[in-house]
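Below is how a single chain appears once it has passed through the pipeline. First comes the sequence as given, then the structure the pipeline wrote out for it. We keep one example in the README because the format questions we get most often are answered faster by looking than by reading.
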Amino acid sequence: MDAVIALWTELPVVIQIVMKIVAIMLPLMLLVAYYTYAERKIIGYMQVRMGPNRVGFFGMRLWGLGQPIADAVKLMFKEIIIPTGASKTLFLIAPMLTIGPALAAWAVFPFDAGLVLADVNAGLLYILAMTSLGVYGVIIAGWASNSKYAFLGSIRSAAQIISYEIAMGFALVGVLVAAGSLNLGDIVNAQQGSVFHWFWLPLLPLFLVYFISGVAETNRAPFDVAEGESEIVAGFHVEYSGMTFAVFFLAEYANMILISALSALMFMGGWLSPLPQNWVDGVFLLDDGFQWLLLKTFAFMFLFLWFRATFPRYRYDQIMRLGWKVFIPITIVWIVVVSVMRVAEMPWWFN
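Resulting structure:
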């Protein structure tokens, strides 16, 4: 181990950073691919269907574990068609502008105590900035496609994303007030104790608003009206095919994973154990660690799939009303409540 550490410290800083990025991106892309498989399987079981059961490895064909890889290979070899009259440069840049922020946000995400690519003090501000940039890819994709269907889909999607981004931002302001820091590691450390010391309890309205807004911001059911499935079009990316469409698809699932991980980090204690520290100190797998963050993230990821299989789609006016007339007032009021609790050092969260 000492030899490995010595070898690591001798590597140039640039190579160390690149290796850390690869160590984050490779598992994330694998998780995105198999998240699509999990969605098809889980919703299939909920609706008494089989789900993927034809492509597999090592004689396990009925499990369908090779389906994401088969889908990726198919999309790689499909032709990328650019519509007549489309702005070719912007048409090809738009998918990158959508997936880029979803991946860049992981640069400041702490996976465990001290296990982070860039431990910046303004990590929360960086997350807000990155998650707000994805809307530009949506708008550009619809405008550059030279299609009225795509353009209308992009306008509806952008309006929905911006509306719920405000509520999400206010919810994170409540986290900032509660933790007294913009550093994501400090936010987790401020929740030390047990499950009753985590921020989900004093910030319960903000927690619910943040996660539901995250579902709406990613255009997932029951907020997926921007795709206009009743119109037999796919919204802003209706003109995309092959790998350009796949990038939009990857961006949607990467954003779902990001929202799930941030919900676990901001409100559910991150890598902290739900049990009191004196109970689990030094106990394998029960002590604080990455395994708890992973488990909490998977729980929120499952909720995305459960919502899709359960709830009917909202009308667009209902979605806008919920964001502007319900969620934003709730967050503003609760920020004031949390500020009073913070000033009063209300036990046991903020003392």
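The chain has a mean pLDDT of 89.

See the next section for the split statistics.
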